[in-house]
């Protein structure tokens, strides 16, 4: 390049040519990395049954996908995996944020895996905006399990309706079981409706509580306590031990006031420390006792059948709702009738009837 400063008139000043700049675009870059083609349902099923974690993860991603094509493959995979599923202990774990769920799942998980077998940790958190990037978040929450070769950790399907999120997790359970995971933990944050959803897909429901405030029982919704098959008071360590024992006594007496459970099992209350790993074996012995009890008296099968029926009906409810609300004509009419109701020109009931009549006249021949 010509540098005017090198002209004779500028004595004592020379400008060296610069270094040739590399091209802006890396010539070795081959463009967008092509996505791996979608495996067929048959390939996925074959991989899952062999215990191939990559295939399992890909199938779970399809289960979680909103695309109709992905759903079609996912449903076929689930259907084909069903005969291989069911052979696991499904354990729901709930507790308010900070109760120590992650810490506890980490140690409970290692405890369970000491005897061999495999463990899948799933979650239902409908408020969760978590995306793929935060799988790492979940993995760091459960550090030891995250690097355990026999553990499969999957965060909650990302936000959606509770029913939708829960159904996806339930379908993932089928896939995990077909892949040989004989222990399934399903974690949920104990603050809302999601406990009911988890309860309707597990064999044992564990409620993690904390001691300390003296009025433990007031903060918990009665419904959640009634669902629990076991209540465990975490952080029973250091100078918290006495308070934990007191809470244990309070929970025990509160449980006595509840009507007897359908299973005939009397929920137990134990203290433990997830962090210091105190009392872990005892918690697990309780869970073993429960499984022996309900397998002997037939309740285990009965509960699973009830759940299968529940999910069939839930799915029908969900699909009907989607079909109704996703119809643009229904949507327009709904909007119109809403305006009439708000303007006091029509009652809510006749407005609802108008929309439903329209929907049914369109869909039933
Ligand atoms: P999560 O929100 O329910 O998943 O709770 P975490 O497992 O993240 O625990 C919340 C906090 O409680 C963390 O700072 C843990 O270190 C602490 N923690 C968990 N378990 C115990 C325990 O057994 N004893 C004590 N002292 N602290 C604990």
Count of helix runs: 15
Broad CATH class of the largest domain: Alpha Beta
Topology as H/E string? Answer: HHHEHEHHEHEHEHHEHEHHHH
Bound molecules: guanosine-5'-diphosphate
Measured between the Cα atoms of the first and last residue, the distance is: 81 Å
CATH superfamily of the largest domain: P-loop containing nucleotide triphosphate hydrolases
What's a quick, concise take on this entry?
With 365 residues, the chain is α/β, with parallel strands linked by helices.
Topology:
Layout: H1 41-50, H2 53-64, H3 68-81, E1 89-95, H4 101-113, E2 119-124, H5 135-141, H6 143-146, E3 151-153, H7 162-178, E4 183-189, H8 194-199, E5 204-210, H9 216-219, H10 222-227, E6 230-234, H11 241-256, E7 268-271, H12 280-297, H13 299-325, H14 328-342, H15 348-363
Parallel strand pairs: 1-4, 1-5, 2-3, 2-4, 5-6, 6-7
Plain-language structure description:
51% of the residues lie in helices and 11% in strands. It contains 15 helices and 7 strands. α1 (41-50) packs across α2 (53-64) and α1 (41-50) packs across α3 (68-81). The relative contact order is 0.09. The protein has 3 domains: 39-84, Single alpha-helices involved in coiled-coils or other helix-helix interfaces (Up-down Bundle), CATH 1.20.5; 85-312, Rossmann fold, CATH 3.40.50.300; 327-363, no CATH class. With 365 residues, it is an alpha/beta fold. Residues 130-136 have low confidence and may be disordered. The chain has a 7-stranded parallel beta sheet with strand order 3-2-4-1-5-6-7, sandwiched between helices. β6, α11 (241-256) and β7 (268-271) form a beta-alpha-beta unit.
């Amino acid at each position: 390049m010509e540098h005017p400063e090198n002209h004779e008139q500028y004595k004592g000043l020379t400008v060296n040519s610069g270094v040739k700049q590399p091209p802006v675009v890396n010539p070795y870059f081959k463009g967008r990395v092509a996505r791996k083609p979608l495996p067929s349902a048959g390939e996925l099923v074959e991989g899952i049954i062999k215990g191939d974690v990559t295939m399992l993860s890909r199938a779970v991603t399809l289960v979680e996908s909103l695309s109709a094509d992905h759903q079609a493959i996912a449903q076929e995979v689930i259907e084909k995996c069903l005969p291989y599923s069911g052979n696991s202990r499904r354990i729901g774990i709930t507790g308010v944020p900070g109760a120590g769920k992650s810490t506890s799942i980490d140690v409970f998980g290692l405890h369970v895996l000491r005897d061999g077998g495999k463990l899948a940790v799933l979650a239902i958190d409908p408020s969760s905006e978590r995306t793929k990037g935060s799988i790492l978040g979940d993995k760091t929450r459960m550090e030891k399990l995250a690097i355990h070769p026999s553990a499969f950790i999957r965060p909650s399907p990302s936000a959606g309706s509770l029913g939708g999120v829960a159904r996806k997790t339930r379908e993932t359970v089928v896939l995990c079981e077909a892949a040989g995971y004989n222990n399934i933990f399903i974690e949920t944050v104990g603050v809302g409706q999601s406990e009911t959803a988890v309860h309707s897909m597990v064999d044992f429901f564990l409620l993690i509580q904390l001691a300390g405030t003296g009025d433990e029982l007031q903060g918990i919704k009665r419904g959640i306590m009634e669902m629990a098959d076991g209540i465990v008071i975490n952080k029973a360590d250091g100078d918290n031990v006495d308070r934990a024992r007191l809470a244990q006594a309070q929970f025990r007496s509160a449980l006595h006031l509840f009507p007897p459970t359908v299973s005939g099992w009397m929920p137990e209350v134990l203290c433990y420390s997830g962090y210091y790993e105190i009392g872990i074996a005892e918690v697990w012995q309780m869970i073993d006792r429960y499984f022996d009890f309900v397998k002997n008296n037939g309740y285990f099968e009965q509960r699973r059948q009830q759940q299968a029926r529940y999910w069939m009906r839930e799915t029908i409810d969900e699909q009907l709702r989607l079909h109704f609300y996703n119809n643009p004509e229904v949507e327009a009419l709904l909007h119109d009738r809403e305006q009439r109701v708000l303007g006091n020109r029509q009652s809510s009931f006749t407005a609802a009837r108008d929309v439903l009549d329209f929907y049914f006249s369109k869909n039933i021949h």
